[in-house]
Amino acid sequence: MDPIITTFADFCAGIADQPLPDDVVRCATDRLVDTIGCAIGGYGCAAARIGRDLAPRVSGEQPWPARWLSGATPVTNIEAAGFVNSAMIRYLDFNDTYPGGHPSDALGPVLAAADAIDADGPALIRAVVVGYEIFIRLAVAARLREHGWDQGFGVGLATAGALSSLLGLDAATTAHALSIAAVSIMPMRATRAGELSLWKGAATALAAREATFAVLLAREGMTGPSEPVTGRHGLQDLVTGAFELAPFGTDGDRFLILSTKTKYWPVEYNLQAVVWAAIELRERCRVSEIESVEVETYWSAWHETASERAKWDPRTRETADHSMPYALARTLTDGRLDLTAFEERAYLDPALRPLIGRVAVHVADDIEAAFPAETRLRATALTTSGQRIRVEIINPLGDHRNPLSGAQLDDKFRRLVTPAAGVAAADRALAALRAIADCPSVRPALDSLVPPADT
User: Distance between CA 39 and CA 84 in Å, rounded?
Assistant: First the structure.
């Protein structure tokens, strides 16, 4: 069997054999709180609505009937519920990240399955850790983004590994699930090019759904190709070239989930720094006096958010939350960047276009050389009086070297959940999720997310 797949499978099957370090459990709990908050905030998005409309309805006799987050009763299967959950998680572009993608995109099916099988809290926490560890190692080693492929491959394998762990599959069965997912999920990066569509927020949800079915197939005895990554016509042969994985965490090693980044602002992660830069520039000069703004950044930030004409004229929500010129101009104008910035009236605002047009973005050699060990951005405003005002942001709030505190994550959760559930229900849900690592059942915590009108 493929050594990469075997390494993943052995980790998935063996993680229950030793206790996780306390800091890893705390981090996984933080990621769950953040992810579920983002999902409830994104409940009404079009992609999730479409997924709910198309979800097959199942009877009580169906094995593992499932519900999506904030659903009152099980109505569908795990694959469909997982798709809806991941679409909700992803919609606001507010969930956590690691260079190369969003590991929390894999948690939609994990949460649906944990609820359906009535898993205990420790099993859910282990599954979260498995998903993050697989995703991040693939992002670091395979560098699929740089090869023109989308993050869904990593999300698919992360989902397959996390679900296999949650269901208690042995290493051999897990390897087959991972192998089936690996040869079946290889999405193109065109998803995130040009003017972005609804699919930007749903592509990884489909990858997670397909991986869920791969796990269910393997559980029933389906076998997968023997060398989907390292063998002939495998990932390394066709796409990436040879690579090696970073060692998995043990008692003596750092788990890579600890290196994930959370978001203070509801926008693509590379834009966190530009929002802080705009706030600082606004404090030092009047927006009406700004003649131009030059932004210096690292290559992947430029490529993702400022390398295409569409980013200077965002016509969709998905383009706006991936546009550095828009995020800068909107923040300079408003003094903040919140969810209202991604309403149609805001990103189509004709009054903002002149300021967007005065923004220039390019890669700076010193900033590129420092990334990813350090995340930096410089912005220089030229005023109408000829004054140059420069600000520099290093490791913005939410970076793992400058993390959001537990209290800040809790406040973010309340802001996202309260509009749907009310203050008291949001507080109850938060308390239940904060204690989930020690719970004998995850269902009470997930029940607490159901809006009072639906209970």
Answer: 9
